[in-house]
Design goal:
Helices cover 78% and strands 0% of the residues. By secondary structure, the protein is mostly helical. It is globular and about 50 Å long.
């Protein structure tokens, strides 16, 4: 029992440690999002609540845009649902890493806090997933996201937009730090990462010529994820013992 408690505490500490760089990147991006929220008439408190409940830049920006346009509630809900639909896929992927005895409440708790970056660091950990690791990453990154939004609304347009955009570059560096190690370790993962970049870039550029302007960026990501991840899973399946082994 004591050993299990120590392992849980260790997982929590490691989650907090890995969540710190995520929190720093989130703060910069959320700050710029807060400026957009301020222009839409949101108060710092409203921005904080929105960000603590919806941890997605694309989804929040779409929601803020709908609020600024005085869209009805049903349109706001559908817009955010479609924009954030990729997290359904991430949750399905994470469910494969849970130990069979993991409770439903832990599964719901982890699902609530899934973001692109938290998903990345969680999936990169070997063996079965320990929910307390994800909770640790969530504990520092999500409040930082919400605080950045609130302070961005407070600051308004005081800071030059170039400064805020420069700060957000840290988030892209964090993405590279997440995907490069597993890509170097596994050739299949590396090839899939390169192929996903290529397909996403090509589809984005060819959307106009193919008359696919109605496909949003989030929808394109979902379709490519289903196609590429499904194909890779069929061609290169991961053995059960490799997925859950420690």
């Amino acid at each position: 029992m004591e050993m299990e408690l120590q392992l849980r505490r260790k997982a929590w500490r490691e989650g907090v440690r890995d969540g710190v760089p995520i929190a720093l990147g989130y703060f910069a991006v959320a700050f710029s999002l807060g400026i957009a929220g301020r222009n839409a008439g949101l108060t710092p408190g409203q921005g904080f609540i929105i960000s603590i409940l919806n941890h997605a830049s694309a989804g929040e920006y779409a929601g803020i845009t709908a609020i600024a346009a005085a869209a009805p509630y049903w349109e706001l809900a559908i817009t955010i649902l479609i924009t954030n639909a990729r997290y359904l896929l991430m949750s399905c992927a994470l469910s494969q890493k849970f130990a069979p005895e993991t409770s439903l409440w832990h599964r719901i708790g982890v699902g609530f806090g899934i973001t692109d970056e938290i998903f990345g660091v969680t999936m990169a950990r070997p063996g079965a997933m320990e929910p307390r690791y994800t909770y640790g990453a969530m504990a520092v990154s999500i409040p930082s996201w919400a605080l950045g939004t609130a302070l961005g609304i407070t600051a308004g347009n005081i800071l030059p937009l170039r400064v805020v955009s420069a700060l957000s570059v840290a988030l892209y560096g964090m993405f590279l730090a997440i995907i490069i190690p597993p890509a170097r370790k596994d050739r299949v993962v590396g090839a899939l990462v390169f192929l996903s970049f290529f397909c996403s870039f090509t589809l984005g550029k060819a959307a106009g010529a193919l008359r696919l302007e109605w496909l949003t960026g989030g929808t394109r990501v979902i379709l490519l994820t289903l196609l590429l991840a499904g194909g890779a899973a069929a061609l290169f399946p991961v053995k059960e013992e490799e997925n859950h082994g420690r």
